[in-house]
Amino acid sequence: MKILWVSAHPEPKSLNAALRSDALSALRGADHDIRTSDLYAMRWNPVVTADDFGHDPHHRLLVGARSGQALTEGTLAPDIRAEQRKLAWADAVIVQFPLWWYGMPAILKGWFDRVFVEGYGYGLRREDGSTRRYGDGTLAGKRAMTVVSFGGSADSAGARGINGQMDELLFPIHHGIFWYTGMSVLPPVLIDSADRLPAKHYPGVAARLIDRLSGLFTDAPLPFRSQNGGDYDARFVLHEDRAPGVTGLRAHYADAESGTRESESEVRTTAICNVF
């Protein structure tokens, strides 16, 4: 199978870099085809500008409309088109990053901002005029997974931890980017206490990552509800008989039954988090 690995860490001698190297070796050893986007090594430009679209700077820039026009006309900046070609080629996308200030590094956010333009990442329509998103879109049929390191302990990012539950912290990426554009999303691989990992524990962490990657095309994805699957009304609000009494992020999982139920996806996430 064909896998795109997107990584965002500035230090080539980091834990993230070592894990990436071992993971890519294992994937190639399993006869997968690999392409990579090491954003810091590429010196990726994370800033959206008029130059992305060949836009006249003397005119007002409407980013959505102009990016969609450039996509249609084939005038997007060459670096954006190169990343879109990688995405089109891939059967699965791995995105690896350290969690900084409750989110992804700016360079990775800028990759999504620049590559997922209107008509590619959003703003797609069916022939009947309905929107294609949340389970449908340009990237439908592909799989996606995050590999995320963070400095806190596993417990501090658990259901009652002060840092917040990790599957909720990653919801904007998993649901708001991957699922939005149509990709099936696998539970993340979480590397806790990453800034103080003893060398003797590294082989176990690497082995857990490689084991998860072995199920990239077979493991069950997170059970997000699709927009056009009948769960939402015309205002894109859940019907009253879907997960009654459940609100917030949890309601948008198809297996949500109560506000206190620990879902299968949450169990898997917590188990992966305890890597030591």
Task: Annotate the secondary structure layout.
Elements: E1 2-7, H1 15-29, E2 33-38, H2 39-42, H3 63-73, H4 78-89, E3 92-98, H5 106-115, E4 143-149, H6 166-169, H7 171-179, E5 184-185, E6 189-191, H8 202-213, H9 264-273
Parallel strand pairs: 1-2, 1-3, 3-4, 4-5, 4-6
Give a verbal description of the structure:
- The chain has 276 residues and is an alpha/beta fold.
- It has one domain: Rossmann fold (3-Layer(aba) Sandwich).
- It contains 9 helices and 6 strands.
- The protein has helices at residues 15-29, 39-42, 63-73, 78-89, 106-115, 166-169, 171-179, 202-213, 264-273; strands spanning 2-7, 33-38, 92-98, 143-149, 184-185, 189-191.
- The longest helix has 15 residues, at 15-29.
- The radius of gyration is 19 Å and the shape is globular.
- The protein starts with a strand and ends with a helix.
- The model is unreliable at 258-276 (pLDDT under 50).
Quick structural summary:
The chain is 32% helix and 11% strand. The protein is of the alpha/beta class and 276 residues long.
